[in-house]
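I had to read the description of the data format several times before I understood it. Each protein is reduced to its one-letter sequence and a matching series of backbone shape codes. The format is easy to grasp once an entry is in front of the reader. For illustration, here is how one protein appears when written out as sequence plus structure tokens:
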Amino acid sequence: MKEVLTFLPHTVSEMAQIVTFCSHLLLVFNLQIQGSTSVNHVFVQTGKDLILNLTEAEIAQNSKLWLWQFNGKGLVTFSAPSPPTVEEPYTGRIEVLEKKYNVKLKNLQKSDSGIYTAKTVLPTEKTLIEYNITAQDPVSSVDLTVNLTSNTSSSIFTVTCRAGNSFISSTLRCENRTCGESRGVTTSGSYLRIYQLNESITCNHSNQVSFIKATKKIEDYCPPDVAVNTATIVGMSATAAALVAVGIVFGVFRIRKRKRSPNTVYEVPQPNPQQNPYENPAEIAPAHSPTSTYALVQFPHRPEQHNDASSCLTPQPETIYAQVNRAEKTNSRPAKATR
């Protein structure tokens, strides 16, 4: 029992120490949360100016002293009601703006990259805002080259984009006029990118503050007859089909027109209006069209001769007449028989 009583006070003392330690940790954690703020990452081109903003609402009304720091060292000190004070190393490079909480950093260089912090010192120390500033040089120019790799029907080229000691490459195929995209990072931290935009190949060299690009036309390397456009094929096929259809319709129209039109009638020869004395007036009919005419020659009827004395005379030549009959056809011209 005595041993138990000795153990209990020792245990309670340890528990009290543990509780006190945890309370201190919780208090420190709360203070860190209250004093911490998010970091704003800013990139600026070397030689340019940058304004660090701090609003009045971010400063407590009872604050007596606050300042801007660079990597923990003071830049500008504000102590009401005195005017702000720029620390000696930064005189001429820092300008306090009309709003007494904002400052302008002039002609930034790479050596000016770092953490810029605004904080209150009195009555309590508290971080108000923080900037992580990176000064970068503008990117250099790029060299875009296109070299033939395979001289086949597809014509494969190697596209190379070079910036300083860094380069990336891609492949251009003329068969379908496509250039694969490629990306890379240079030794200075800038970015190289090859991509295709419409009928051009572009190499882009960029960082957070600048960019520059070079462009090549695909048609300068891929002949037009190598890459056949699908739309062109469809258009040519449609045009050919339309021409064939028009030709067929025109041919059918001509054939039908010929079938429906009457036979061509040329000038019909007209008979001489002077009547032939040997024609039979009863057989003469108006001739509307040329007819074929045939002649029938026969001996005329005459009375029988008796053998008498008067008939012993010298026989006279017989008279032959021609009888003209018109044929059944209506398109033939009547012919005249002459004796």
In short: Residues 299 and 318 are 9 Å apart (CA to CA). The longest strand covers residues 126-136. The longest helix spans residues 2-35.
